[in-house]
Request: fold
Amino acid sequence: MKRVAVWFALFIAVMICGAHQQAAFAATAVEIDRDVDAALEKLYAKNPAAKVLAEGAKGILVFPSIVKGGLIVGGQYGEGALRIDGKTDGYYNTGAVSYGLQAGAQSFGYALFFMTDEALEYLKKSNGWEFGSGPSIVIVDEGLAKSMTTTTLKSNIYEYFFDQKGLMAGLGLQGTKITRINK
Reply:
C-alpha cells in the first residue's frame, strides 16, 4: 500500500508541476467567458437563491470547472472570471494542494458572491488570495439557500458549489489559493 501511495503522490506532484507549464494549453478568455456564462445559467436554474445573491452582489467570481484528484496527497486546479455588473473584470485561477486521508477524482465548479465593496477590493488588491486569510466565507448549502432573503444576507462572501461529478472522499488539510491571471 505504501508503494502505491508513493507512486500516486509522485504522479500528483508531476501533474501539479505540469499545470504551471500548460499555459499554452490553458483556456482562452473567450472560452472562459463562455463557460462562466453557461455555469451561471445552470446555477441560477437549479438554485433560485443564487439569483437573489447575484442581484445584490458587488461581484461574482466563477470557476466553471475545477479538477481535483488525490490519494493521500492531492491537488486541484481551475480557471474562471470575475464578473462585475454582468461583465468580465478579470481572470483568475484557483489551485490547491491537500494531504490526508483522501482518495478519488472529481470535477466541480464554484461561485463566490462578493456582497461588499471591501470584500471585492480585498480580492482585487491581494497578491494571491488564500482561503482562511481573507474575509469570512459562508458556504451555501441547500438548507441555507431555502431560507435566504435579502434581509438575511449578512456575510461578506457566499460560496456555491455546483456541477459535481466523480467521487472524492477524504479528511485532510488543504490550502487553496486564488490568483489573478492575464488572458
In short: The longest strand covers residues 87-114.
